[in-house]
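queue> pop job 88
queue> type: inverse folding (structure -> sequence)
queue> payload:
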């Protein structure tokens, strides 16, 4: 029996609750920060109550009365409620959401969902943006604010109300949030109550969610790139104890929408590489499963590596650039150690 099923069974007998988070790691209760254990994935999408959560503030209380104000460089400033928005045609899109601060290992600030909502461009058209509209300042009801180029609305962005065919949970921004597929999660503002269209970006007030480099004259900052291509092991997990012989390794790979052409896996610390079998592409922004049989014949501590390669032949970097002083957008080749007995 898998660990999850066992805990669900035991927990179910004790307390009839689905919210045991047996497969998640809670780093903070309030504001909630919860990592998703990839090992529990069955199928393509992360179940909604296991999807990672990264909240900077407590979930706002008065969500039922949320309205969306669109103002600034627009023809017609508007306040939209659910019935106003519900007149727009809906779209569905499978996409990975990954926090820029996500690391490696099975516990991830990354998950995959089938999102449903209204194209952000259609929502903006209701107010009609002016010619000088260059940025969107997105403000959540919790006070969290992000500023993104206006053109981002044209890149498959949605104002989402449903996730995996269920209403969006409050932890994930319900009743609505923005999702910018292919971009790190911080811009996908939850509980959006105001979109201010502007000709200038908002100046960041902290170094949060900025790339930082040690330059000649001190630390230089720049915006983070789109999601960096990444591949991770689901099985075996770091620290696993395995028997000699064949191991059916499997994992996941994702990117900013750029097609992943291959995943290669090394059973011997990077000396040799095997090409993994990739699951079919279901959506350009969704993650793809991969599998490869490995022969582990030497006993002892063994380092396994995996890396993804895109259509341009780009691969994941083997090292983090030495001048980077932030921890964001880290996608260096995944290395895990397992014990072969
Ligand atoms: N939006 C609001 N209003 N408040 C937040 O704290 N966190 C951001 C983004 N949108 C945040 C937010 C960050 S850093 C991430 S990674 C994603 O939401 C996480 O979305 P999730 O919690 O639904 O997984």
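queue> result:
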């Amino acid at each position: 029996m898998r660990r999850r099923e066992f805990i669900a069974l035991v927990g179910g007998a004790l307390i009839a609750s689905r919210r045991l988070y047996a497969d998640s790691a809670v780093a903070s209760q309030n504001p909630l920060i919860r990592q998703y254990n990839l090992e529990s994935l069955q199928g393509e999408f992360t179940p909604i109550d296991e999807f990672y959560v990264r909240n900077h503030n407590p979930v706002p209380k008065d969500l039922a009365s949320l309205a969306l104000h669109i103002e600034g460089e627009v023809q017609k400033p508007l306040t939209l409620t659910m019935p106003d928005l519900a007149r727009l045609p809906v779209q569905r899109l499978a996409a990975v959401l990954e926090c820029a601060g996500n690391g490696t290992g099975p516990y991830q600030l990354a998950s995959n969902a089938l999102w449903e909502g209204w194209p952000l461009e259609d929502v903006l058209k209701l107010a009609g943006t002016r010619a000088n509209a260059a940025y969107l300042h997105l403000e959540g009801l919790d006070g969290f604010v992000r500023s993104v180029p206006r053109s981002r609305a044209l890149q498959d962005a949605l104002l989402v109300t449903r996730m995996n065919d269920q209403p969006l949970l409050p932890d994930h921004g319900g009743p609505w949030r923005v999702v910018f597929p292919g971009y790190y999660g911080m811009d996908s503002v939850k509980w959006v109550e105001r979109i201010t269209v502007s000709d200038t970006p908002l100046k960041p007030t902290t170094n949060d969610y900025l790339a930082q480099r040690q330059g000649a004259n001190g630390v230089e900052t720049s915006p983070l790139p789109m999601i960096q291509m990444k591949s991770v092991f689901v099985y075996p997990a770091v620290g696993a104890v395995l028997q000699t012989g064949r191991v059916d390794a499997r994992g996941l790979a994702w990117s900013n929408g750029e097609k992943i052409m291959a995943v290669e896996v090394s059973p011997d610390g990077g000396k040799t590489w095997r090409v993994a079998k990739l699951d079919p592409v279901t959506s350009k922004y969704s993650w793809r499963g991969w599998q490869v049989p490995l022969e582990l014949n030497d006993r002892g501590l063994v380092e396994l590596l995996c890396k993804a390669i895109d259509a341009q032949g780009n691969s994941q970097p083997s090292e983090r650039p030495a001048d980077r002083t932030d921890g964001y957008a880290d996608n260096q080749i995944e290395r895990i150690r397992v014990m072969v007995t």
